[in-house]
Amino acid sequence: MEILAAVVFALALLHTFSAKLFERLAHRHARHAGLLHLLGEVEVVFGFWAIVLVALMAVMQGGATAVAYAESRQYTEPLFVFVIMVVAGSRPVLEAVRWMVAGLARGLPVPGALAQSWLCLALVPLAGSLITEPAAMTLAALMLAPLVFRPGMPEWLKYGALGVLFVNVSIGGTLTSFAAPPVLMVAATWHWDSAFMAAHFGWKAAIAVVLNASGITWLMRRHLRGEQAPAAPGAGAGTATGTAAGAAPVPPLVIAIHLAFLAAVVAFAHHPVIFGGLFLMFLGYAQAYQRHQSPLILKEALLVAFFLAGLVVLGGLQQWWLQPIVSSLQPTALFFGALGLTAITDNAALTYLGSLITGISDPAKYMLVAGAVAGGGLTVIANAPNPAGVTLLKQGFEDESIGAGGLLLGALLPTAVAAAMLLI
């Protein structure tokens, strides 16, 4: 069963990396366009192959065993990502972030669109250390969509910006011990608190984030003109959340209540019963004051949760080959090994396996986590918030899909910068 699970996992990876091919085939073969579009949705891939794995397990070991395995998995992270995406992507929350970014941009000695793009690629990912990485990814993606991921921006620059965004979100959450999934997996076991993270990871990550954001913003400078402000949720991102032109401003009290919901969900991120109840209250409040809302990104968030849940099911049977690799490497080799393995498996799963190793040295602990977060932008599955970025931004690319090769190339340089800083 473990070998079969590894084969299914490999097929899921291959499917993920070839998702753009299915989108191109859909345009050429209209008769089967619906099915090909479905297979080209990156968010569907791991959920689909997880169902295949559970079905195969039911055939080989019995239905009761398959159901027991599926129910034994921990789905808190997919549920949290779903909830935080919807709350953070609501119009009042985005309005608050838009006002903050626009106000800070006016204080920078560069054109407005240039300053706003830089802030969305630098400040918002670093804010992920407080509001969690999935929330930072959601806000940054929605803010950047009309600025960068739009017609007129060269495709290679879009991939460059996407790579920087993914890498910066992955390392930007390391200033605290609760915001980045790969850090959260080891923080309690290894007694790493937020002070430890800020002293050993945070300042290095902050420098790398600023360098990456500055580099890609400088490359995009000729295509970022005027005082363009980020639009409302989803505008330009292909989602159904755009706000009608001329819509009335959101009252400050409504914004404050939405921010309170966001803070409460973050505070109870590890308690699905609590944040689930808060989410139901949030939906009721949003419905009661619908005139101050854009349509919530429920579909997009559900697709991302489906993707992550599939990764949880598939990843649960990969420990037999992953853990021996992690435990056999010396600290420096472990850093580069973790960086490479992160590209083909979720970095949180990788650090979790490391936390199970008895007697692991302090240098090895650091190198494992540093490599895992540095490689978090290389692929869509490398870091839990990445599928959210893909879902919200893919409409801005050719064929309305994001190629694995383009993302990898776009993330190579910012990954090198992050790795160099974290190796100091």
What does this structure look like?
- It contains 21 helices and no strands.
- Mean pLDDT is 89; it is low at 227-245.
- The protein has one domain (74-297, 318-422).
- The longest helix has 26 residues, at 194-219.
- Helices cover 71% and strands 0% of the residues.
- It is globular, with a radius of gyration of 21 Å.
- With 424 residues, the chain is mainly alpha-helical.
- It has helices at residues 2-17, 19-28, 33-39, 42-61, 63-72, 76-88, 91-106, 112-131, 133-144, 155-172, 181-190, 194-219, 252-267, 272-288, 298-315, 319-328, 331-342, 347-355, 362-374, 386-393, 404-422.
- Helix 10 runs antiparallel to helix 12 (194-219) and helix 10 (155-172) packs across helix 21 (404-422).
